[in-house]
Amino acid sequence: MITTTRHVSPDKPEVQIAFSLNDSTDLKDAEESLPLTFPDLEQQLQPLPPYQSLPESLQVYKDHCKMAKEFHDVKKEIARLEERKKELIAALVEDEMMSQEASHLQEEFSVLAEENRTLITVQSQRSEQLEKLRVLNQKRQGSS
């Protein structure tokens, strides 16, 4: 048994319709697998209850419900993919920031390594000068 409630127009009360698909197991299966309301669809696109005396009407209703369900599934998939897209964009932004940070650190390392080489060279030169001054000082003390 399918029961559905529809607003035919805003100025009229809602209409409740109940019908059974007992004469067709294929349609009964569809009844069980398809929802009766589709919140994603605008009111004018909602499947209307079929005329139970017309098999074509029942088939159109079944087809419409399937399309509405497919529409709902596609919208859910789009929402899921949009969420995944946001996650991937956030990960990309984070990766770019990490890459920039790594580049900055590499640049800083290069500057510091060059400064270190310069300081080692200066220290070596000063050590040589100090050694020469010691030798010169020892010669002066020895000659005096």
TrEMBL record:
Coiled coil: 71-98
Keywords linked to the UniProt accession: Coiled coil
Protein name (Swiss-Prot/TrEMBL): Map3k7 C-terminal like
